[in-house]
Structures are given as C-alpha cells and as structure tokens.
Amino acid sequence: MSERIILHSKRKKVPIGQMRNRITLQTRDLNAPDFEGSNHTENLKNVTTVFAEVETLTAGTSIFADVNLTEPTTHLFKIRHFPKIFDMSMIKWGDNNYKIIKIIDLNDFHEFVFVYTKFLGTKTFLANT
Q1: Which domains does the chain possess?
Q2: Residue 34 dihedral angles phi and psi, to the nearest 5°
Q3: pLDDT tens-digit profile of 73-104?
C-alpha cells in the first residue's frame, strides 16, 4: 500500500485587526506645458480608499530599482490585494504623500500585497524630474 503525500502551500497572512489605517491610492498624470510655458503640471487622482497596516522601515532600507539605481524606502504598507494596484503611483495617508517604489504580491492567491514607499511629506512629485 503506497502512502499519499499532500503538500499544502503556506499562506503568509496579515491579520485583519492590524489593518486599521485608512489610505488613499492615487494615480499621477503629467500634462505638457502650455505653448509659452516650460513647466509640466501634474494631477493626482484619488482612485480608492483602503485599510492598511503601516510599518516604518529602518533608515537605509533600499530597493533595487529597474534602472539600476537604489532609492531609499521609508514605509511599508500592507494591504489586501487590489486589482489595479500596479497602476498606482502615490499613497496619501493623512496629510502626507508617499511615492510607491515597489509592489510585491505575496503569493499566487492574490490576497495581500506589500507596498514599499518613500515618504514625501506634504509635497508631491516634482513634475520636471
């Protein structure tokens, strides 16, 4: 008689009770300058508000970006999977803005994502950078 072995994948979960911070996911649009102007303008559009667990990262945490440059990350937002999360570019939490550096889907079940961000304060992106 042969034994049947069943392997179960371990799901990495974030307890719902820790997701108590309301954050707003935003997209960013850049508009070309006017005929006589030289500065681009940017518009941040609120897409949805979700609950998240927020973790402040230690100084010097860096994510290796696609352009072979490192950019320091300051906060980690843990949220439930949102289908359009990869289209987002900013997070607003309270009065502060956070630039999204990297998004990691934890597993194939699409339950939770980790969003690594850089704290910008009340500023937004510089449109000409």
Answers
A1: 17-31+38-121 (2.40.10.270)
A2: -65, 170
A3: 889 999 988 888 888 889 999 999 999 988 88
